[in-house]
Amino acid sequence: MPAARPRRLHLNAFLMNAGHHDAAWRHPLTQPDRLTDLGYFQHLARTAERGKLDSIFFADGLALWGKVKHNALGGFEPLTLLSALATVTQRIGLIATVSTTFNEPFHTARKFASLDHLSGGRAGWNIVTSGTVDEARNFGQDEHLEHGLRYERAREFVEVATKLWDSWEDDAVLLDRVRGVYADTGKVRPIDHRGEHFAVRGPLNVQRSPQGYPLLVQAGSSEDGKEFAAQYAEAVFTAQQTLADGQAFYKDVKNRAARHGRREDDLKILPGICPVIGSTEAEARALEQELTDLQVPEYGLAQLSGMLGTDLTGLPLDGPLPALPEERDINGNKSRFTLVAELARRDGLTLRELIARLGGGRGHRVVAGAPEQIADQLEEWFTQGAADGFNVMPPHLPGGLEDFVDHVVPLLQERGLFRTEYSGRTLREHYGLPRPAGRRAPAATRAVPQTPATPASELPKPLKGNRI
Q1: Among candidates 120, 131, 80, 381, which has minimal Cα distance to 239?
Q2: In this predicted model, what pLDDT tens digit does every residue of 162-203 receive, in sequence order?
Q3: How large is the angle between the packed helices 147-165 and 105-119, nearest 10 degrees?
């Protein structure tokens, strides 16, 4: 019996403008003038691919996040950007956020199938339900849909998208030039979906893509979010501050997946980590303090108000958090609300201290240290049942990603924890996940018998002269 393949961690580079720290754009290490410069993102993508990372990821929102007066916000729509990055990379996965609340399944399925074809099978979809009233107001709504209703819509949205991806069978294209038959119409079928939120005829107007479906990623950690992840997600981006919290989340979601008839390994848990890297711990701590010193309190207070669903304007920065609502009364990101509130209470933080703690990761864990210390932290969470890999969030770009690739990744490789070369070409292969089998129609419904493509020798000879 062959030896079991050693377990290897998965690394995703979460790329955000000048970096994840909210003051990164003010630091001389960054290039905030290049946020709409394709060459800048091409360099980041190639850097991540040089490190053999599984994927790069771009978050997205459908409103201008935060106070643009005090941060380098805005930029490219992620699917457009990833389509361009597909042309300058060969192996690395390409993951984009698309909301199920303010999009339609047909558009979304079509765009991801297109990206999967363009990239040779490297597309991934981070499924979100959107969390702010500002997004709702950009789509003709005065208030955001209720949290539970957003997840009900998301479930049906994903079901419709997968039906659309299955509306072309893998062998539907016959390409029979002699008979004039391009596709077997029995294998390109309407989906005729009618549900609570969507009515979609189909079929999709894109052939079945290399991966069948994009890798399905989910980023919510509320009760609704965890149940959704357990049922549909193949990778989960999450935020925990302590090893114990990470272990509890990991066990909870894996157990839920089993109740949906899925294997534990069908779903990868990737907590976020913001690594502040220096040649020594002292150097890393000094960089962390430089970034903290560049924070604009007004920006941090507005960001914190949004996370907590509570207007903190005018409160003393050196005072404690005021009384907060219960999680059940939050209609935005419930899990992030709870994480931030518990962090402040557990560590007795003032508003100023809380703003500083959230500056790099917005609730994700921030670790400052030498490369060996960062690698130790990743190894501990990976081997102690808290993670299958990590959503790496460089605090400043491009240097924060370069430092991780050049100094942390080699340590993980030396320890046998991470690949030294890509073994596959698709994003699903990187994550060790199978290609979904299409849901096929009964043979009796197939209108055209399957035939191989006509040999070139049997095709009509092309006419001489000009061709239009």
Answers
A1: 381
A2: 999 999 999 999 999 999 999 999 999 999 999 999 999 999
A3: 50
